[in-house]
Amino acid sequence: MFRRKKPTDTRDAALQDDFVVVVDESVNPYLVLFHEPAGFRAEQLRGLRNRLVAMNPDGEPKTLVVTSAVRGEGKTVSALNLAMAFAELERQEVVVVDADLRRPSCERYLNLNQRAGLTDVLLGHETVDKALRPAGYRDLVMLGAGTRVENPAEVFSSSRLDQLLHRLKERFHYVVVDTPPVLSSTDAGVLSAAADGTLLVVRLEHSLKKQSRDAWQVLSDTGGNVLGTFVTEVRGQDPDSDRRLAYDPAPEEAE
Ligand SMILES: Nc1ncnc2c1ncn2[C@@H]1O[C@H](COP(=O)(O)OP(=O)(O)OP(=O)(O)O)[C@@H](O)[C@H]1O
Ligand SMILES: [Mg+2]
Fold first, then answer.
1. Which of 13, 25, 91, 254 is buried most deeply by CB count within 10 Å?
2. Residue 1 resides in a domain
3. Model-level pTM greater than 0.90?
4. Which contiguous run of DSSP H or E holds residue 47?
5. Ligand 1, from 33, 76, 80, 233: best to mutate by most atoms within 8 Å of Cβ?
6. Does residue 112 belong to any structural domain of this protein?
């Protein structure tokens, strides 16, 4: 195991230097595709990915918004895990976009520095090509939230959002978009309406049924195509609590 101590762009360095293995404990522990790719939770994410792929038999490029009713329900972790699961597929270019301009966290969860990103592109201060960067997991590409702005809703109201999503679909097969909560601003509704599909994250034992239902309604009313819900934290916080559902390879026979 090689470990880099500095929490600065180690993921970029690893991409340039592919014989170095970086095991970085600063990456969010719930990014199971990164930390436990052989585990049961990673398999569940692949199951979701496969269902989404099956819903797209022609293999057309698709934009997918990941959102939820309120704060802290697991949107960002789910969006990143899902993007990583897509990135495992051969010949599939995938980009994850941090469109939560209010509390951006994609770069932090991947232990990347914040750079020019979505706001800079939407405001015409940066080109898409320059703002895209390696996410540090396989060939996954990231478009971070970018420079902080006072008025995120205004940034999304520009016609540049549609142009940007169109542009990303020319280059990527899957565009996974992390958003702020549906019930606290109009951003998620606008993004959902501009995307091909939306997944609503529900955090078991935390999310309120009424709020999740309201969020679904808001998304549908504003033109979003809600594909379904994605339930997180199904077996609680203890990683061992889902052992019974796991199907690990049988232990090697003793000789
Ligand atoms: N399956 C899980 N079990 C326990 N904790 C989790 C799980 N998934 C994510 N978390 C933790 O819960 C917190 C919220 O997760 P996350 O940031 O993904 O939610 P969010 O909906 O994007 O929040 P926000 O609305 O603030 O953007 C984080 O600290 C994250 O590490
Ligand atoms: Mg988030």
1. 13
2. no
3. no
4. helix 40-54
5. 76
6. yes
Among 45, 77, 81, say which to mutate for ligand 1: greatest number of ligand atoms within 8 Å of CB.
77
The mean pLDDT values, 10 residues at a time, for the chain of 255 residues are: 40 44 72 93 94 94 97 95 96 96 96 95 96 96 97 88 96 98 96 96 87 95 95 61 52 54
Residue 83 to residue 94: CA distance in whole angstroms:
7
Tokens 């109009």 correspond to what residue? 186
The answer to whether position 251 is within a domain reads no
Ligand nearest to the CA of 45: 1
Can you tell me which residue has the tokens 């090689």?
Answer: 2
**Which residues touch 229 (CB under 8 Å, ≥6 apart)?**
199, 200, 201, 202, 212, 216
For 126, the domain range is: 10-236
Residues with C-beta atoms within 5 A of ion ligand 2? 75-76
Residue nearest to atom 25 of ligand 1 (CA): 71
- In this structure, the residues whose C-beta lies within 6 A of any atom of ligand 1 are 28, 30, 68, 71-77, 100, 103, 105, 181, 232-233, 237
Dist. CA 235–CA 241, nearest whole Å = 6
> Which residue(s) pair with 68 in the sheet?
201
Asked if residue 190 is part of any domain, the answer here is yes
